[in-house]
Amino acid sequence: MRRWLSLFLLLIALPLAAARPQRVVSQAVGTDELLLALADPGQIAALSHISHDGRFSPVAADARRFPALKDSDAESVLRFRPDLVLAASFTRPETLALLRRAGVRLVVIDRFDTLDDVYASLRLLGRELGQEARAETVIAQCRSRVEALAARLKGATPVRVLSAGIYPFTSGAGTTFQDLCDHAGALNVAAEAGLKGHAPTPSEKLLVWKVDVLVAAGEGDVRARLAELPHYRLLPAFKAGRLVVIPGPMMSSVSHHRIAAYEALAKALHPDRFR
Q1: How many domains in the chain?
Q2: 66 and 177: one domain?
Q3: Torsion angle, alpha carbons of 164, 167, 173, 179, to 10
Q4: Domain enclosing residue 77, as ranges
Q5: pLDDT tens-digit readout, 142-165
Q6: pTM
Q7: Contact of 55 with 251, CB cutoff 8 Å
Q8: How far apart are CA 91 and CA 94, in angstroms?
Q9: Distance CA 123, CA 127 (A)
């Protein structure tokens, strides 16, 4: 009886295993991060065209084990004969249209502003890959880190921060920077002032905003680059050297790897909580 039961369970499992995609192509860095966390190595056909570049990808070391697309266009993707393509909502519309026209199974990740959005993406991709249990494991690990960070920051006074960069935009409410602030013991002064999304930097208003610390993404001498912009150079926080620089790939991550940015910013703003 036990033998027949085992055979029955095996027969049920075979279609599920066969249904798992075996040639998955990721078209964006964010989907690279999710795919590498969940897929079996044999399921990955190719990663994004910048997946191997540590200036943009927080998983570049792992990504180099797999082929990279030549470009982000549909032709480069289809060259790998995928049975599943992962893309992001910021992928060029014409690329998405061509992939749909080719009849390839396409999953587009379109929400990534908050950690809850990331959890939803992990579960979605887990179902697509037949890796639901692995997705739940990643989520549980994330929650453990976030809870540990929240415990360290409990009762800490939020530090007033502003996102700074060489581009003429700052990050208000409803952005990944706001999510970063929410988890790192920071108050986003741009959101407090009513800015939503990535809005033009209101140069004339910055001096009347009370900014304690500037937060920037990048490598090298970020301070020197910001010093070329008068609206940052004149801020008391900048003059006093109150600038936190977070590596670009970490700061811009739209996956679970963003938690490293939470931890880095929290340590910079609240060093007393990490002694």
Answers
A1: 2
A2: no
A3: -60
A4: 18-110
A5: 999 999 999 999 999 999 999 998
A6: 0.88
A7: no
A8: 9
A9: 6
